[in-house]
Amino acid sequence: xxxxxxxxxxxxxxxxxxxxxxxxxxxxxxxxxxxxxxxxxxxxxxxxxxxxxxxxxxxxxxxxxxxxxxxxxxxxxxxxxxxxxxxxxxxxxxxxxxxxxxxxxxxxxxxxxxxxxxxxxxxxxxxxxxxxxxxxxxxxxxxxxxxxxxxxxxxxxxxxxxxxxxxxxxxxxxxxxxx
Length: 179
What we know:
With 179 residues, the protein is of the alpha/beta class. The chain has seven helices and five strands.
């Protein structure tokens, strides 16, 4: 591996393909995979939605930061972060110091399409029209791009729609950044 990295943190907006790419990449290189939201849910035995409801966003973000720092100690691990993870506390600095950060840069229209198909799974998008989702994505990306742009690697996330595209993206990532 280039630069002897032990951790890869994948960041980007919701529905950008972080979990899809992260899981496939980890499997391909024989590393562990952690979806940070799932890790939080397992640790606190509550869904992210429940934690938001009981603790508010501030409470959730504190838990998220603590779990990021815990997971960030594991070696040979690909960590898929929540869309807002890089935007709070010193999370982005921590990730850049502990491993390789990858901003999965996915076209807004691709994100919108994925969210329209799966919006019931996303509490922030549930019940919204396609146009409302489009506006929310544009606003969210504008607000978060300054954090996402601090990643060491920018990688496209549009081509993660089927097994062939996922496998091709993983191979391209490995060729460009790991081998």
